[in-house]
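Hi R.,

Quick one: here's the 7-alpha-hydroxysteroid dehydrogenase sequence you asked about.
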Amino acid sequence: MITQSLLSLTDKTALVTGGAAGIGKASALILAQAGANVMIADLNLEAAEHTAEEIKKLTGRNIEYVACNILQDDQLVNAVNKTIETFGQIHILVNNAGGGRWP
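And here's the predicted structure, written out as tokens:
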């Protein structure tokens, strides 16, 4: 596989916001194929769980998930803390989820 030959992320940890679908899901899959453990953070917990299970089956990597609304500071802190508790540290952060705050 191209990603495995060009990029090895064996035993690195990635946190992917908006990781249950679309670009986030594709990012999580590519990271897992390259050897990373992945935490999928998404508003839709059911979709995040489904995506995590799908990627686990395809790659054999440790894929976990957490509910996270990126507009809520406490949920962001929880996603980071759960990732660190599960995997030890975060090496890669994919800020994929949409959203924003207006002044």
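The chain has four helices and four strands.

Cheers,
M.
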